[in-house]
Design brief:
Helix content is about 55%, strand content about 5%. The chain has about 325 residues and is mostly helical. It folds into two domains: about 90 residues, DNA polymerase, domain 1 (Orthogonal Bundle); about 160 residues, Intergrase catalytic core (hpI Integrase, Chain A, Orthogonal Bundle). A three-stranded antiparallel sheet has the order 1-2-3. α5 packs antiparallel against α6 and α10 crosses α13. It is globular and about 60 Å long.
Length: about 325
């Protein structure tokens, strides 16, 4: 029997029929080559489709072409019972994408996922660092070794330009244009955007580039940020490093790589930047994704009002006061 945990679907990644493997492989190729989806999107969608395939296989199906609306309804029921709404929404998006592909290929004669509604996802307010916490985090990296100089440059650039960690780790040296003070970023769906780079980030990158050859040691690497072995620095390694520096800086918040991207957007908004400009710099396709940061700004305004206005009433229940 399939094990299902209270905090989510605990699937065993068990073997599935060979035909299903081929179908998932063909779907992955469709995402990459025909739709131009990025590696992370392909991995995420195919992971969700594989979980559905495991479920279908446990129900006796030998191919995804044998799946019917009952199988789909049972799977959605399992997911909705144990997964949070954001996870449900992602899995349903994967199934809808698969359904469109199967209909185009004639594998399904009708779109079985067409009537499946996504759950309403309430976006949580992202945790951010204050300006002083950001400064402490970046300073904690130091500049004594090639690795620490590299890490400081990465932190400066991520906070200074609002990059995703995958975008940061994939940057090439040629993507940085110091004269024009911009960085060319390849984001989701291989879309390229131009983002400004500040002086502190450019100075840190310049210092890193001067010691980068010590990391490469006659090896060639296309990526800007590399390890001692001359390999591309992975997201996992960067995650480990930022945790280390947050601990050294005495920051008690749950510091993850994305917190610098959130801090970038929030600090810009707090200082009067236009929301549409922030959207462009972050590479959001939907403005509603960027608007989540306005909730943080509204909280700041409420706190200031409660603290400063003589008739506000200091007993007002506002989070953070």
């Amino acid at each position: 029997m399939r094990k299902v945990g209270e905090k989510g679907m605990k699937l065993e990644n068990r073997p599935i029929p060979e035909r299903m493997e081929r179908e998932i492989g063909d779907y992955a190729a469709h995402l990459r080559m025909e739709l131009g989806r990025g590696a992370n999107t392909v991995a995420s969608y195919c992971g969700d489709v594989r979980q559905f395939a495991e479920f279908a296989a446990s129900d006796g199906k030998r191919s995804l072409s044998e799946v019917d609306s009952d199988t789909l309804a049972l799977w959605i029921g399992k997911v909705s019972k144990f997964a949070k709404s954001s996870t449900q929404s992602r899995k349903i998006s994967a199934l809808r994408s698969l359904a469109l592909y199967f209909c185009d290929e004639g594998i399904w004669d009708k779109n079985l996922a067409a009537l499946v509604a996504r759950p309403k996802v309430r976006r949580s307010v992202p945790e951010v660092l204050s300006a002083s916490e950001t400064d402490r985090l970046i300073t904690a990296a130091g500049d004594e070794t090639p690795e620490s100089i590299r890490d400081r440059a990465m932190l400066e650039l991520m906070y200074g330009s609002g990059l995703r960690v995958s975008e940061l780790c994939s940057l090439k040296e040629s993507d940085i244009d110091a004269r024009e003070r911009i960085v060319r970023v390849r984001g989701k769906g291989d879309k390229t955007r131009i983002v400004p780079v500040g002086d502190m980030a450019l100075d840190a990158i310049d210092k890193y580039c001067r010691v980068r050859k010590e990391l490469l040691k006659k090896r060639n690497a296309a990526e800007l940020f590399v390890t001692r072995r001359g390999k591309k620095l992975s997201r996992k390694t960067f995650w480990h490093n930022i945790k280390k520096y947050a601990f050294a800086a005495g920051i008690e918040k749950n510091v993850k790589p994305h917190i610098l991207r959130h801090s970038f957007a929030t600090h810009l908004l707090q200082n009067g930047a236009n929301l549409m400009s922030i959207r462009e710099m972050l590479g959001h396709s939907d403005l509603s994704t960027t608007q989540i940061y306005t909730r943080l700004l509204n909280d700041d305004i409420q706190r200031e009002y409660a603290r400063k206005h003589p008739r506000s009433g200091m007993n007002v229940d506002i989070p953070g006061i």
